[in-house]
Specification:
The complex is a heterodimer of chains A (338) and B (485). Chain A contains 12 helices and 7 strands. Chain A is an alpha+beta fold. Chain A has 2 domains: 3-106; 174-337, Histidine kinase-like ATPase, C-terminal domain (Heat Shock Protein 90), CATH 3.30.565.10. In chain A, a hairpin with a 3-residue loop joins β4 (242-250) and β5 (254-261). With 485 residues, chain B is of the alpha/beta class. Chain B is built from 15 helices and 19 strands. The radius of gyration of chain B is 24 Å and the shape is globular. At the A-B interface, α2, β4, β5, β6 and β7 of A face β1, β2, β10 and α7 of B.
């Protein structure tokens, strides 16, 4: 019975029962009072107090949990949250718990995680070439270039093969910030062959945190797609020099990575669309095979939320002619703490 | 490692706030600049109190204090410092600091000990106050500093400074920076809320830019410059730099004098001499915040000067004179009569223009029909307090436009209003100027007043120290919201 009391339905029935009994007793009491079998009107006061008590219990036990549950369903319907509906503390009825369990199966984190991961790799590789084949071929080109004395070709090829190796190595979801940063720098190095000194990268970190901060864990391919996005959609179209800044900050419980560019920025409708996709939980984006602007951001955001919870993720602000900022909020955790 | 004092994660409270992400570290001064006012009040409420949220999480000192699932409606330990001081004027500084605080359990008050403690707290701030000084005797700046100390003693997680330039003079603002630095070095966190980026940039380590209830930019120190801000306020720039607007200031003033103030002595006013020509707009900047209130009292005709003369249109000022209009600070609060309808509020001072206005309902209805475009069809409704500030401000200025005064005195017209309201206000002042109204603006801080001014009078020790003409405004090196190009 105690277990059943977690359902609002059971609570309503129970309160209705007590209310029915109470009102019946009140009527009987009043009847007896009118018949003058009860002399003192004090029973009326007790009845009234009992009624107030039942109302108060109904409010705290039924109305408030119902409002909360309703709010959670509203947020679920608008895409704000997935998790809360599964963790719902006061379900309406036993049958709805079963519905939630089914939803949970449908939203199985592992499946979605794999889908997101695969898409992240796809977005990073950008084509259907067998990456192992490409990696081996690049190593071959590098050897040939070194033998021929073409050092710049060798360096570029090495950077490209390192990038591919990092991208396709299928070890874990999480890597250290240091590793991800290295891969990002490597990617930037490759892009610099194309853009020359037109694009510049600065990494800012508090001096006291420099070594320590790099040990924190971050989802693999969380940073590089954002940098790629900034270069392709922000800096590439800009006339003149473009700056990219990665700012690393650490608090007691969080790791904050801010990727800023001073590129062309986004139009308001595009920014609104990306912000909406970042704020609502949906995996429709994995169906898109074209490389739409912002899709990488949504992918990274969803992977972070799946791995660490809905309170973490990405925030994007942008302004035409000013640039775009992407703020990544992550829990501060080190490998040994896992 | 940075210590996070306050954090708002994806906080939404439609229709005011949308996906707000803000974090403040211990010992930081963070600016919050509102390009428009929407959502600012609600955001500050969320900092202070754990109200119900549509979505999001609020963390104080890394502890979840509020989220969309459960709001306990408790107050957070936040101090808000604004125009209305939290100190009690009739009590001494010691009493305000040590007795009026949570956890004070002393029954026997040892004033000598409290005074001693107070002096110890004031010493590093280079602020000298006599023991048992009443709060009423303090200047705005001293009150501000005492409130900082009070916040420190109550171990506030954060101090919100709201529009302080509207009540602290420019000279005092310059003294504020080292004091803020002292408190922030001691671990106090500040959120500096204002409407002007220059002001926020002067004090803040980083800033958040807010518009339409959204954070639209997080500005780091290297981004806190006019070039970046101009991209967010280009509408303002375009509207004020418009050619025909600027042309109206190139005409020479008329020879007739609307305001003559000669050898005026009254409390802190010492031998003040001002002359305003007809159709001229003059800003009187009292950066010490000494004489503005007193001059306003004299202009309203409530009191007379100790010596000297103050004449408007050759006469002594009188409140009943409809050719004179006086607008105090925050007119959206002080000049709106909630018991009257919107229509009556608008026509309140127009009875001299329309004969038998209050007896003739048809005439009022005809006027109302014309005003409907600007004020909607709620003209017959009373003005509720929840009407937006922009609507109330528009109402006050429309009343003045209908009154058609020839002399207008305004106190800090651009205080605590957002960019869009400032744009609207500048165009209203343009209309007044085109009508030939003589305008005297009394200001503690300049904000955007130079955009509508022909002359700037700098006041020191109760008298005019220096005058700058419109083409010389660039020589002024104090805090300016914007100045004409």
């Amino acid at each position: 019975m105690v277990e059943k009391l977690q359902y609002i339905e059971t609570r309503i029935l129970l309160i209705a029962f007590f209310l029915g009994v109470h009102i019946s007793l009140m009527i009987v009491g009043m009847f007896l009072y009118m018949e003058e079998r009860i002399q003192s009107p004090l029973f009326l006061l007790w009845s009234l107090l009992g009624l107030i008590f039942l109302m108060a219990v109904s409010y705290w036990w039924i109305v408030l949990p119902y409002r909360r549950t309703k709010h959670i369903w509203q947020l679920f319907a608008t895409g704000y949250t997935f998790r809360s509906i599964i963790d719902e503390q006061t379900p309406l009825a036993k049958e709805l718990v079963a519905v939630n369990t089914t939803i949970q199966t449908v939203l199985n984190t592992d499946h979605l995680m794999n889908a997101s991961k695969r898409q992240a790799q796809f977005l990073a590789l950008q084509n259907q070439i067998n990456p192992h084949f490409l990696y081996n071929t690049l190593e071959g080109i590098r050897s040939e270039a070194l033998l021929g004395g073409l050092e710049s070709v060798a360096t570029m090829t090495e950077a490209l093969s390192t990038f591919f190796r990092y991208t396709i190595s299928n070890v874990e979801n999480l890597v250290t910030l240091g590793q991800e940063l290295e891969n990002t720098k490597n990617y930037f190095f490759i892009q610099q062959f194309r853009f020359g000194t037109r694009i510049k990268l600065t990494i800012l970190v508090d001096e006291e945190d420099t070594i320590d901060i790099l040990q924190y864990r971050i989802p693999k391919l969380a940073l590089q797609p954002i940098v790629e996005n900034s270069i392709i959609h922000g800096l590439e179209c800009k006339v003149g020099e473009g700056h990219l800044q990665i700012r690393l900050e650490r608090t007691q419980s969080r790791l904050i990575v801010t990727v800023s560019d001073d590129g062309v920025g986004m139009e308001l409708p595009m920014l609104g669309k990306i912000q909406k996709e970042l704020n609502t939980r949906s995996f429709d984006y994995v169906k898109h095979e074209d490389k739409e602007s912002g899709i990488a951001l949504v992918n990274v955001n969803n992977r972070i939320k799946l791995l660490f919870g809905e309170q973490y993720g990405l925030t994007v602000t942008s302004q035409k002619e000013v640039g775009t900022d992407v703020i990544i909020s992550l829990p501060a955790s080190k490998p040994e703490e896992a | 490692m940075k210590e996070e004092v306050f954090r708002l994660e994806q906080v939404s409270l439609p229709p005011y706030l949308h996906d707000i992400n803000i974090h403040l570290f211990k010992g930081e001064i963070v600016g919050l600049i509102g390009l428009n006012a929407l959502g600012i009040e609600q955001l500050l409420t969320i900092f202070q109190k754990n109200i119900s949220l549509h979505y999001g999480h609020v963390y104080c000192k890394d502890e979840l204090v509020n989220d969309y699932l459960s709001s306990n409606h408790k107050q957070n330990n936040i101090t808000v410092i604004e125009r209305k001081s939290m100190l009690i004027d009739t009590l001494s500084v010691e009493e305000n600091l040590f007795i009026l605080k949570k956890g004070c359990k002393q029954h026997l008050i040892r004033y000598s000990l409290l005074s001693n403690q107070m002096q110890q707290l004031l010493a590093p701030l280079h602020l000298k106050l006599a023991n048992k000084t009443l709060v009423a005797e303090l200047t705005s700046f001293e009150k501000l500093v005492i409130q900082f100390i009070k916040a420190q003693l109550s171990r506030s997680s954060m101090v919100i400074l709201k529009d302080i330039s509207t009540f602290v003079s420019e000279i005092d603002l310059a003294k504020l920076k080292p004091i803020l630095d002292y408190f922030s070095a001691n671990g106090m966190t500040f959120l500096y809320v204002c409407n002007h980026h220059q002001e926020a940039f002067q004090f803040s380590n980083r800033c958040y830019l807010m518009r339409e209830g959204k954070i639209i930019k997080h500005l780091y120190p290297d981004q806190m410059n006019d070039t970046i801000i101009s991209q967010y306020s280009y509408e303002f720039k375009e509207s004020i730099e418009e050619g025909s607007r600027q042309d109206q200031y190139s005409k020479p003033p008329l020879s007739s004098r609307d305001l003559v103030c000669s050898n005026l002595w009254y409390h802190d006013i010492k031998q003040l001499n001002i002359e305003l020509h007809a159709g001229e707009t003059v800003v009187l900047l009292d950066s010490e915040n000494m004489i503005l209130d007193q001059l306003f009292v004299l202009l309203s005709g409530v009191d007379v000067a100790d010596s000297g003369s103050l004449l408007i249109h050759g006469k002594r000022p009188s409140l009943a004179d409809r050719s004179i209009a006086l607008v105090p600070e925050k007119p959206d609060q002080s000049l709106i009569f909630p018991q009257l309808s919107v229509m009556d509020n608008l026509l309140f001072t127009s009875d001299h223009k329309v004969p038998h206005l209050w007896l003739n309902r048809k005439r009022r209805a005809a006027l109302g029909y014309e005003l409907q475009k600007r004020f909607g069809n709620r003209l017959t409704d009373k003005v509720p307090s929840d009407f937006p500030q922009s609507y109330r401000l528009r109402l006050v200025y429309q009343r003045i436009l209908l009154q058609k005064p020839t002399f207008l005195c305004v106190v800090q017209p651009f205080a605590s209003i957002d960019m869009y309201q400032r744009m609207e206000l500048i165009s209203t002042y343009d209309v007044l100027k085109q009508r030939g109204t003589t305008i005297l603006i009394l200001a503690v801080s300049l904000s955007d007043t130079l955009q509508i001014a022909d002359r700037l009078l700098l006041c020191k020790n109760g008298q005019i120290e220096r005058q700058l003409l419109r083409h010389e405004f660039s020589q002024y090196n104090g805090i300016v919201g914007s100045r004409p190009t």
